[in-house]
Amino acid sequence: MTLTEENKRDIIKAFIETFARFSDKEYQRRIWIKGEGPECDDFTETICQLYDIGYPVLEDYKNFSITNSQYQLTKQFINALDAFRYRSIQRNYLPQEFIDTPEWDNITKLAQEVLVAFNYQKDS
Question: pTM for the full model?
Fold first, then answer.
């Protein structure tokens, strides 16, 4: 299937918005831990969305007009998240148990760096 430029923009928007969820601890506390809404999301869903959208985008990043530096930073985030997930699965971590750890602080900071690299502006 050939993607139109509009399709690519929509995919990139969803991809980048996933990083916004990883970058915002208040969102994580409100949605992932307390389930207060209005969004309906959890840690696992955010991970799945990142991988479902992210891997195909990163495999063809030049076609999505992603620069090499954006690609490298995004890969750095995904590698850090993969390492975190591997360790957290071994410990059966839940978001309320890891959200205030230095390890998770690093994940949120990397996500913030990705957002800066993509000039992300949250929709009002």
Answer: 0.89
